[in-house]
Amino acid sequence: MKEMISVALPKGRLGDKVYRMFRDAGYPNEEIEKDGRKLVFESPEYGIRYFLVKPSDVTVYVERGAADIGVCGKDILKEYAPEVYELLDLKTGNCRMCVAAKEDFEDDLSRTLRVATKFPRVAQEHYGKRGRQIDVIKLNGSIELAPVLGLSDVIVDIVETGTTLRENHLSVFETIFPISARLIANRASFRFKRQEIETLTEKLKQLVEEKK
Ligand code: PRP
Known about the structure:
The chain is of the alpha/beta class. The chain has helices spanning about 15-25, 60-65, 75-80, 120-130, 145-150, 165, 185-190, 195-210, and strands at about 5-10, 40-45, 50-55, 70-75, 85-90, 95-100, 115, 135-140, 155-160, 170-180, 180-185. It has a six-stranded mixed sheet with strand order 2-3-1-4-11-5. A five-stranded mixed sheet has the order 8-7-9-6-10. α4 links the parallel β7 and β8. It is elongated and about 60 Å long. The protein binds 1-O-pyrophosphono-5-O-phosphono-alpha-D-ribofuranose (PRP).
């Protein structure tokens, strides 16, 4: 029997896409493709076990070794700076971290800027670099509501298609960094299952290159 690699996949659209990459790289699991409430899927014959976890929790599972590897966005890596290895840019789930505000927003530098975000560290770092004082308002979702209701002046959030901004009459003022999905590994797992993890990474890398 092969040494099993356990993979924390982000539940949802990104996870579906990423699973298909793993499948095409030679690590299929028939059950995961069906809609259901199961969270663990094993394919011992392919040496792989998948867990479906909330996207922002992938790093927790990987950092603590509950999963050997996982996939998460660069946004999560920048925000939480987990102690994991970043093995590969999967070049999918592309979007960007942005500052957005109401279309008529003008920054008043004499006042502390109120920033609503799910990413307080990213926001602090971005404004810290230019010495701009900010008041971070941490929210957990629907960030775009904050400037609409006057709860904040700007938001630091992810923009993918731009639809959410447009439909709420907000626009992008700055792009902070581009985001894509990354393959990450637990540091100890990478030592003990190095061969298996490297083989899998290499296969995924070939797929990423072919898609270019
Ligand atoms: C994300 C992000 C934006 C939206 C951007 O939210 O926070 O709200 O997607 O996508 P778009 O540019 O294609 O419109 P998510 O769907 O994760 O939900 P949330 O409101 O719970 O953060």
